[in-house]
Amino acid sequence: MKRLSFPFRTPGVNHPATILSMAVLALLLMSSCKQAEKKDPEPQQMKVNGSIVHPVVQPPNLPRPVGDRGAAKVKVEMEIIEKEMELSDGVTYLFWTFDGTVPGSFIRTRVGDEVEFILKNHPDSRLPHNIDLHAVTGPGGGAEASFVAPGKQATFSFKTINPGLYVYHCATAPVGMHVANGMYGLVLVEPAGGLPPVDREYYVMQGDFYTQGATNEKGLQAFDVQKAIDEEPEYVVFNGRVGALTGENAISAEVGETVRLYIGNGGPNYVSSFHVIGEIFDKVYLEGGDMVNKNVQTTLIPAGGAAIVEMKVEVPGEFVLVDHSLFRAFNKGALGILKVEGEENEKVFGGKIAEANYNPATAAQEIGNRAKVDTVDVAELTFEEKLKHGEKIYTQACLACHQATGAGIPNAFPPLAGSDFLNEDVKRAIEVVKHGLTGEIVVNGDAYNSVMPPQNLSDQEIASVLTYIYNNWGNNKTEVTTKMVDELQD
Ligand code: HEC
Ligand SMILES: [Cu+2]
After folding, report:
1. Ligand 1 in contact with 455 (CB < 6 A)?
2. Which of 28, 48, 332, 423 has the fewest CB atoms within 10 Å, i.e. is most exposed?
3. pLDDT of residue 454
């Protein structure tokens, strides 16, 4: 740049128009010169220096950042292993894996690298496999070139020309089945100069699993092709099993750190609505590409796709990674924990400050009045009338929690069908419906420790709904009268 500025200082070049046009020219020259200086060669033309043996690191960990190393020759060796592992406690599955884990080990490269990929299929395998890397530009992403029978190995090479986070997976027919059995992982191609440094990085991949047995049915479970076709998985999990990222396996960070998650979705079927409860993604590299979105609550990760999310963790606590299609999270396994330790930060989160009853006077009065009117003025319904009336009340007031058949929901709402708690003591049952219930109770041997809110029903409505319940679903056929309800203390 210095050489260029010299002529403008020469005396004699003093006509305003000349100066202006020369200034414009100088600007143009400067900017084009700057571009030429900064611009790396096209990724295809990038020269490689030296060679590196790529390390094998087990998820949720991954190799160290590439940083500012130049493009190099990178030798990746990967071994296909078919092996039985736990899918959930007491539930095992014959997984097909890259490097013995689901997802397979994380491959970390930079743009311009020349990758020599050696895929080995363990002699104990029963099937041939291959690999399709979405980071590869070439037929099948390397699938044909890497096809290997048990006890064989295949070598192929490719140059990384598009930076981004990519899925790899087996692409041997039936492809869906190879993926459903766990054959996927992520490959990162960092841009020149690397990604901005962060304090922690983790590797998480979602997948859906199709077992012949129902969710949590113990023992070795076979793959169920019909459930896979119908897209009805028994499990939706992070990193290949229920609990891969909870309890002792939780990922961790300290207050003030920035955490980067490389999130992939192997599928084979489901799309993930990835969310971390109690955190906001400061940055999301959408779909693993160059575009960065900021301040995101939930990011969509397609099957066969990925995203990079970053969050600075400001307060301690357990932050829950979920697929926000919530029944997958709470019933099928798609849950993980990011455990953050460190000092509380009350400016960011003040915690619970106070707790009090909320009892609007108008509603309470209304209910009181209604109950009085009912007991004083309304004649007792016949048994048949109570059944009809009770069914209506049940549908309006109880069904949402206790379910249409009175079966309840395990661990949440106790059953009313054949309930020993209900049949033992009618006065207690009336109290429950009148005043609600909190604290631990045991119903048919199962403990519940939850809250049933007071139901705001009139004495007549309580008599009807309980009569309906007692005379259905195998209960003891008690008839509850308005008088019985009225006699109990309000
Ligand atoms: C918002 C959810 C909810 C609604 C609505 C609800 N319940 Fe409950 N119910 C519960 C919970 C939770 C418990 C257990 C409370 C505990 O753990 O202490 C319970 C317990 C009971 C019990 C005692 C335990 C058993 O299984 O026998 C009875 C009887 C009962 N409810 C009847 C009713 C009736 C009748 C209605 C409708 C008028 C109703 N509930 C509406 C949530 C609900
Ligand atoms: Cu395979």
Report:
1. yes
2. 28
3. 83
